[in-house]
Design brief:
Blueprint (H helix, E strand, L loop, with lengths): L10 H13 L7 H14 L3 E5 L2 H11 L7 E5 L4 H8 L4 E5 L21 E4 L11 H10 L3 E5 L7 E2 L2 E2 L6 E5 L12 E5 L2 H11 L22 H11 L2 H19 L5 E2 L7 E2 L5 E5 L7 H10 L5 E2 L8 H6 L8 H9 E4 L7 H14 L4
Parallel strand pairs: 2-3, 2-4, 4-5, 5-8
Antiparallel strand pairs: 1-9, 6-7, 6-11, 8-9, 10-12, 12-14, 13-14
Helix pairs in contact: 1-7, 2-7, 3-4, 3-6
The structure holds pyridoxal-5'-phosphate (PLP).
The site of pyridoxal-5'-phosphate (PLP) has 12 residues, from α3.
Length: 370
């Protein structure tokens, strides 16, 4: 089976982890953590990096840093991962959804302003599948209405908006380093910020809100969301070759684009003139005229030995939120369509041209376009 993605572990990853094991620095103290934090922050153009146990934890802490009041609102796309909503609701806040752009699959920034209320406090742009959100209008609205921006940059390591790195534009930005992300630590995440107070608060929340004065005296409740030195060791080795990894993703994406461009019944990823798309995952939207849905198409691809993944199911369609009465009666047509017609094909760093050709032939075969 050709998997959607597989991490590629090099010699330095092994060497650095071995160093942790041999020196005994296997917990959440140790030199690799700070090095990883500093190098990732500096790569993205931010001052502080706070490594945490995963991307979901990063989002939850990021929202926690804003210290908002219960019932305050955060605007985000319906088309995203559940982690984004949890980060908001676990902090006692209200998620407010908008639809996404049919071409970039990122939040449709033209829909934000209509959802701003006196309770709005933050916007959470989620860069999607390698392509950045159109950030200037988000930043303009945030300034005009005094809203904070928490960027979710889990899917766009190395992606750029008008020359600025994704994850370098928000008040706080969040990353995941799960095994399928462009750089990985197995499980892991990070927050970046230029704000000293947010950085300090994020470090506190990450580590059970220990106080610097009296040991075991707590004024607030935090979490244990620490990353281990061993995971950071893998991360450091990965950051050191980030340019190569990002270029590899772009090459894979462009090869697919060139070979699939002539098929009118599938919609391919775009790259807006202001964007650097890093093609984290190569997505397709199947036109209804093919008679296929993502689900039927995925089964046929599986028969060819190819794994695919469906697109996100919108947050307003989640059973868990129906029970809670959230998003009742709301509808987001673009999200609903791409959730049914969209899927992504293998995009791992280990793909070679033979495998990509086999995938391309299979797509054409299923669509009877050979
Ligand atoms: C992967 C991902 C996350 C969650 O990260 P985990 O490390 O799996 O918790 C959050 N947001 C987006 C957009 C993601 O792709």
């Amino acid at each position: 089976m050709i998997l959607v993605s597989e991490p590629v572990i090099g010699e330095n990853e092994t060497r650095y982890v071995l160093d942790c094991l041999q020196t005994g620095w296997i917990s959440s103290a140790g030199a690799y953590i700070e090095k990883f934090e500093q190098q990732w922050a500096s790569y993205c153009g931010m001052r502080h990096g706070i490594a945490v146990s995963n991307g979901t934890a990063a989002l939850q802490i990021a929202i926690g840093c804003l210290q908002l009041e219960p019932g305050d609102e955060v605007i985000l796309p319906s088309f995203t991962i559940i982690s984004c909503i949890q980060a908001i609701t676990y902090n006692g806040l209200k998620p407010v959804l908008i639809d996404c752009d049919p071409d970039t699959w990122c939040m449709d920034v033209a829909q934000i302003e209509a959802k701003i209320t006196p309770r709005s406090r933050a916007i959470m742009p989620v860069h999607m599948y390698g392509h950045p959100v159109d950030m200037d209008p988000v930043i303009e609205l945030a300034n005009r209405y005094s809203l904070k921006i928490v960027e979710d940059a889990a899917q766009v390591h190395g992606g750029e908006y008008k020359g600025r790195k994704c994850g370098g534009m928000g008040d706080i930005s969040c990353f995941s380093f799960f095994a399928n992300k462009i750089i990985t630590t197995g499980e892991g995440g990070m927050l970046l910020t230029n704000d000293d107070a947010y950085a300090e608060r994020a470090r506190k929340l990450r580590n059970l809100c220990f106080e610097s004065g009296r040991r075991f005296m707590h004024r607030e409740l935090g979490f244990n969301y620490r990353l281990t030195n061993m995971q950071a060791a893998i991360g450091l080795a990965q950051v050191e070759k980030i340019e190569e990894l990002v270029q590899r993703k772009i090459d894979i994406g462009q090869y697919y684009l060139n070979k699939l461009r002539d098929i009118p019944v599938i919609q391919l990823p775009v790259e807006r003139e202001w964007a650097k798309n890093v093609y984290w995952m190569f997505g397709l939207i199947l036109d209804e005229s093919t008679g296929e849905t993502a689900e039927t198409f995925a089964k046929k691809m599986r028969n060819e030995g190819i794994e695919t993944r469906p697109y996100f199911l919108g947050m307003h369609e989640q059973a868990v939120f129906k029970i809670e009465g959230l998003f009742e009666g709301e509808t987001y047509p673009v999200t609903e369509r791409i959730a049914r017609q969209g899927l992504y094909i293998p995009s791992g760093l280990n793909l070679n041209l033979n495998t990509q050709d086999h995938i391309i032939r299979s797509i054409r075969g299923i669509l009877k376009l050979l």
